[in-house]
Amino acid sequence: MPKVSEIEAALFEIAPRDCAMDWDNVGLLVGVPGREVHKVLVSLDITEDVIAEATQLGADLIVAHHPVVFHGQKTVTDRDVVGRRILRLVKRSISAICMHTNLDTAPGGVNDTLAECLGLRNVYRLEETGVLRVGNLEEPMALRDFAARVGKTLGCNGVRYADAERPVYQVAVGGGACGEFEDAAIRAGCDTFVTSDLSYHQFLDAKENGINLIDAGHFPTEDPVCHELITYLQYRFPGLQIHKAKHREVIQYYVEGV
Predict the structure, then answer these.
(1) Number of neighbours of residue 87 by Cβ within 10 angstroms
(2) How far apart are CA 70 and CA 49, in angstroms?
(3) Most buried residue among 39, 83, 166, 184 by CB atoms closer than 10 A?
(4) How much of the chain exceeds pLDDT 90, in percent?
C-alpha cells in the first residue's frame, strides 16, 4: 500500500506546491510521512465531525482542501478548535494532507471544475488573477434562470445575487472567496461573476459596475473538486479505499414566507 508521503507527492503532481500563494499552508500538515495508507477520506474541510467519520471508517488519511493548520498556530492544546482537531488526528493516527490555493490555480482544480459544473464553454484562465476561469454559455439567459441553475447544480442552500440588468453569457468563476477579483472580471468583459463571500458594497455597486454578481457560497463552489480528487487518487492508487466525507454546507437561510 502507498505511504502518506507517496500520496502527498502524487497530489503535488496535479497541484504543485509552488502554485500555492506564499501565505498558504499546503501538503502534509499532520501525520507520519512513512505510514502506509489503506483508507482515505476526502473532504473540503477537516472538522471534528469529519475526524469522527474518518475514525469510524478506519481511515488512515484525510485529504482536504482547506488547511487544518493555517493562521499561525503557535500552540497545540485542547483550548481552541484547531488544537483540538490536531490532537484528535494525532491520537487516532490519522494523517492530514491539504491542497489549498495550489488546487485553486491548478489545471483541472477547483475553478476548472466549477466552470465545468456550470456548463461554461471555451474556458480559459484569467492570467491577471491566476485563479479565475472565464467562459461562455451556449446561449445567453436571464440572470434569475442562471442563478437557479447555479443553485441546483451546486446544491446550494441559497444563492445571493445582484442584477446589473444584463443577460448572462460571458461568465467568470472563482470558487471560494474570490471577490477581490471582481474588477479583473469586469476588465475581461464578463457580464456575470460567480464566487462567494461577497460584501454588501459589492452587491450595492453591481449595477453601476455593470456586472451581475452571484454568491453561491464558499462550500458549494469548492466542494465539487473533491470528486475530482477521488477520481485521481483511485486512478493513481487502485488498491486504496477512498470515501467522500458526509460533510456538507453549514450555512442555512431563512426567508420569510418560504
Answers:
(1) 14
(2) 19
(3) 184
(4) 95
| Cα distance between residue 258 and residue 255, in whole Å | 6
Contact 212, 143 (CB under 8 A): yes
State yes or no: pLDDT of 257 exceeds 80.
no
For cell 474556458, the residue is 123
Phi, psi angles (nearest 5°) of residue 83: -60, -45
CA atoms of 221 and 194, how far apart (whole Å): 9
Query: Which stretch of DSSP H or E encloses residue 201?
Result: helix 200-204
Q: Which amino acid is at 88?
A: R
Read out DSSP for 126-145? Answer: -TTTSS-EEEEEEEEE-HHH
Q: Which residues pair with 212 in a beta bridge?
A: 192
- Plot region of 36 (φ>0 → left; ψ -120 to 50 → alpha; else → beta): beta
pLDDT at residue 258, rounded to an integer: 60
CA distance 2 to 12: 15
Report the C-alpha gap between 180 and 129 in whole angstroms.
9
Q: Is 176 helix (H, G, I), strand (E, B) or coil?
A: coil
DSSP SS3 for 183: helix
Express each pLDDT in 196-222 by its tens digit: 999 999 999 999 999 999 999 999 999
